[in-house]
Amino acid sequence: MNSGRLEVNRSNAVARGTTEKAGNADIFNGPIGMKNVAVAAILVCSALVLTAAQNTDDSGGRSNILALEHAWDQAQGRGDVKALTAIFDNALIYVDYDGKLLTKAEYMARVKANNIHMQQIVAEEMSVQMFGDTAIVVGTYRVKGLENGKPYLKRGRFTDTWVLRGKNWICVAAETTPILH
């Protein structure tokens, strides 16, 4: 009985060790079958070449982003608002270690005021994950300085989100969390 669906005799295919399509044709034997195998091989090779090229691009992107992360630390330590302005998107969303949400303008004002007098900021470790034109950086940092005349040492974890705009990576979101132990 034919209900309008394609019916394939799979028991013969299994017994012969072949795969069948509509019309019981063996797709691996004959000139058309060899073309299919050749096309599949070409597609696999092309995918491998593209993956290798993408990994090369990713490593270049990772290097650029890590350099920008270090430039950020240096600029913040010096209170260099001009350098930070170039690193951050105008719509930056920054979540500070105390949970306060800051805009780019608010973050820059805080850096300019420098009322916590950072003497040293060091990224202890960083990991970059690439997602096309977006990258996520997760790491830890240590900050030494003076606050109200008293020395302090703080450690924290951060997550920064970078987006490729044209040829430049720019930070669009950042978050810090204190490490209390």
Polypeptide structure, described:
The longest helix has 49 residues, at 30-78. The chain has a domain at 61-178: Nuclear Transport Factor 2, Chain: A. The N and C termini lie far apart (73 Å). Residues 1-25 and 43-56 have low confidence and may be disordered. The chain has helices at 10-16, 30-78, 81-87, 104-113, and strands spanning 88-95, 101-102, 118-131, 134-147, 150-165, 168-178. α2 runs antiparallel to α3. It is globular, with a radius of gyration of 28 Å. It has 4 helices and 6 strands. It has 181 residues and is an alpha+beta fold. The protein has a 6-stranded mixed beta sheet with strand order 2-1-6-5-4-3.
Key features of this structure:
36% strand, single chain, 181 residues, alpha+beta, Nuclear Transport Factor 2, Chain: A, disordered N terminus
Work out the helicity level.
40-55%
Strand content: 35-45%
The gross shape turns out to be globular
What's the CATH architecture name of the domain at 61-178? Roll
Major sheet: order of its strands? 2-1-6-5-4-3
Order of helices and strands: HHHEEHEEEE
